[in-house]
Each structure stands twice: as C-alpha cells, then as structure tokens.
Amino acid sequence: MSEKITIIKGDGIGPEIMDATIRVLDHLDLGLTYDYQDAGLMALELHGELLPQATLDAIKSTGMCLKGPLTTPVGKGFSSINVALRRYFNLYANVRPVVTFEGTKSKYEDIDILTIRENTEGAYLSEGQTINEDRTVAESKIVVTREASVNIVRYAFDIAQKAGRKKVTAVHKANIMKTTSGLFLEVAQEIAKEYPEIEFNTLIVDNTCMQLVMNPGQFDVIVTTNLFGDIISDLCAGLVGGLGMAPGANIGNDVAMFEAVHGSAPDIAGKKIANPTALILAAAMMIEHLGYTVEAGRIRQAIKQTLLDKDRLTGDLGGTAHTAEFTDAVISRL
C-alpha cells in the first residue's frame, strides 16, 4: 500500500532534521511517497507568502503532513503559522506524548504521559484582541465552546481506551475562570461517566504543574484547554530531557499533521549538529496513525537503544556526532 505524505521541511534546522527523518522512513520501505511543499520563511522567500495556497491544497489532498519547525516573522502576516494551519484544517486535538529514554538528561524514570490539548479556541483565539490608542490597556477574548470541549475530552478518553491507559486527568482553572474553564470542567465530568472503566480526576492547573514536578508518575493522560495544554506539554517535555525529545501531532477529522514541537534553532542551522529525535518520533506517530504499529515501535526501540549505547549522539545528548551520524546509528538498529 502506498501512502502520499505532504512534507514541509521548515525553517532553520528543519531541512536537516527532515532529511534525517526521511532516511529513517525510507529504510522501513513502507512504500511512502512524498509531496514537498513550502511554508514559513522559505515560502515567503520563494512565493511571497508564509503559507501558500498550494501548500494548503496539498495537505488537504493527502490528508497527512509531516512538518519541520516554522518561523513566523514578527509583525508579518499570521500571529502564528502553526495556529493558522490548525485552525484552517480544524485540527482540534494536539497530542503530545513524553516518554523517558535512558541516556538523556531526564531527572525521572518511567515517565509516560500523554497530554491532549484543545487546539482551536480558548485563549489563543485571535479574534477580539484590542489595545487602546495610548497602549495602556490590552484586551483579549477567551472563547470555550461545548462542542470543542466535548470533542477534545471524548478524543482523550477514546485514545486512552485504545491505548490501554488507565487514567484521564482534566486540568482546569474553574475556581477563578468560572465560565470558560468552568464549562470545560462541566463537559469533562459529563463525558467521564461514559467511560467507567477509566479512572478520572480533575486538577486545577497550578496544582497540576506542581504535581508534575513533584510526582509525575501519578499522571497518565492529561486533557485540557489550549493555553494550559501549551504550558503543560512543554513542562512534561522538560521531565524527559527537553523539547528535543518531544514529538507532537495535530489531529482533525480529515487531516493529521505531525511535527517536532521545538523551534527552528536558527543559531545552529546549517551546522549539521541538530538532534532529529523529536521529528523522527513524530514520524513514528504518523506511521502508527496510518496503521504501521509494529514499524513505529521499531523506530522508538532503535532510538532507545542508540541512546542507551551512547552511540554517535549529538551535542545536546552528550555526544559530538553530526545529525547524519546520529541518524546512521538509529538506522543501524532498525
């Protein structure tokens, strides 16, 4: 079976880590084909716009996208290209797994947390932002809908059920934000009753952050609104060694987009020393989404063994290898 994937290499280190990731995918010989499209600074330079219609059309056609990190220039166009993509395709679920890999800078063992973040509304809704003429008062509107809350909470419980996970924690700030966060909490409590086999609890967001630092082992699946999910998922990445180890997925009904969640790191772009692990793990999520569960497991195991053996690691992992050398080490274990 052949699957066509839209590939956006991205900015900064994006092309380097994407080339590494494609090498890993090709080694698995899954019959994947690639449609390369531009976005971000590269698209601006080549096409005069950050997010060309041709790129949007390609993603819509394939329904599957693997994306490197993108840079949104300050003061030009979108507030965020990533947010624009998520909203254009209604990619309502942001999925951020973190897993401990021995040999990294993680301070914990056996971390396995899945953060499910609502991706289209909440505090990141671009409408309703105002600032007065003398720039002394700024306002921004937060919108939370029952429909979006139902979609994200049900998605979290469904993915927990399919993956054999035991617990879902809904994170909120309903004690203060009684309408917006209160509605999300209300919906979460309603949906949880449909899944009696899965343990359910709720936590206020500030307590969640403290608990994640003190006792992260108590968490399994976290579901929350947009802003809280953005913060919590990065905190969770810090538990396992940083964003260089953290893949992400953005899932909608018709399109799925997989990405490295770290930035474009322009300071090391072109030096061929970037760690491609996050994007390779994102590719593993992608092929698992396509049904290649065994092959996705092989990728994760190859990375795990490479880190364990400390073989050709990049600088952020404690080694001196280049991106291609680290990729060679992973491929040798496939």
UniProtKB/TrEMBL annotation:
Domain of life: Bacteria
GO MF term set: isocitrate dehydrogenase (NAD+) activity
The keyword Oxidoreductase belongs to this UniProt entry's keyword annotation: yes
Family: Belongs to the isocitrate and isopropylmalate dehydrogenases family.
The keyword Oxidoreductase appears for this protein: yes
Residues of the Isopropylmalate dehydrogenase-like domain: 4-330
Alphabetical UniProt keywords: Oxidoreductase
EC number(s) per entry: 1.1.1.41
Entry-linked Pfam families: Iso_dh
Naturally occurring in which organism (per UniProt): Marinicella sediminis
Protein name: Isocitrate dehydrogenase
